[in-house]
Specification:
The protein is of the alpha+beta class. 36% of the residues lie in helices and 29% in strands.
Length: 211
């Protein structure tokens, strides 16, 4: 697949300040109400889903010479196991709330580590998120998953000096990477998609309204 794919990667960085503060404020009540932890993956999954709605070609798949635009949002979440990375699918992320997404990710991660994932758990996704940050990776170029045309790479959160207006502040920053198949997605769509994810994570209240 890689030989026939015109794979390019575009990068951006996200100021994680607001989402970290929101999570800190809400995590205890969230766990109390839903019996599941509030992690960053639900925010990124919701942000990706909103961006896929805005840029439908990123949610496509190549089938031979045809481009299939998918009318559903099934997001693969890469999970590390002893055997390597597997990518179980969280179905209907547009219809699930934060708690349902966190519960799905938790269940699939447990199944992955217990080697109980079925073929059905891993087939039919429309887009993938992989988090190199769990291994301490600051920046990487994620590889496209199967016939999908886009994959988002998250990375480790690192405090860095950032210009905020005319001042320099230390902020928790994350580099993100979107690898995409240039045969289907052009540069403006890829940059716009990543910018949408960035803006939603930096303004997480907007994401809560999306839900």
């Amino acid at each position: 697949m890689k030989q026939s794919t015109a794979m390019l990667t575009t990068f951006n960085e996200i100021d994680m300040t607001n989402v970290m503060e929101l999570r800190k404020r809400k995590k205890d009540k969230f766990q109390q109400d839903h019996d599941v932890k509030l992690g960053f993956m639900s925010f990124f999954t919701k942000a990706v889903t909103a961006a896929l709605k805005k840029y439908p070609y990123v949610n496509a798949e190549i089938d031979g010479t045809d481009v299939l635009l998918k009318q559903f949002y099934d997001v693969g979440i890469a999970v590390s196991t002893e055997e390597g990375l597997v990518v179980p699918i969280v179905r209907d992320t547009d219809k699930k709330n934060f708690a349902e997404i966190e519960a799905s990710i938790g269940e699939l991660a447990t199944k992955a580590r217990d080697k109980k994932l079925s073929i059905g758990d891993m087939t039919g996704g429309s887009f993938t998120i992989t988090n190199g940050g769990v291994f301490g990776s600051l920046l990487s170029t994620p590889i496209l998953n199967g016939t999908q045309v886009g994959i988002l790479g998250m990375h480790t959160i690192q405090k860095r000096p950032i210009a905020v207006g005319d001042n320099v502040e230390i902020r928790p920053m994350m580099y993100v990477a979107l690898s995409y198949d240039h045969r289907v997605i052009d540069g403006s769509d890829s940059v716009g998609f990543l910018k949408t994810v960035k803006e939603l994570i930096e303004n997480p209240e907007d994401l809560l309204l999306e839900s």
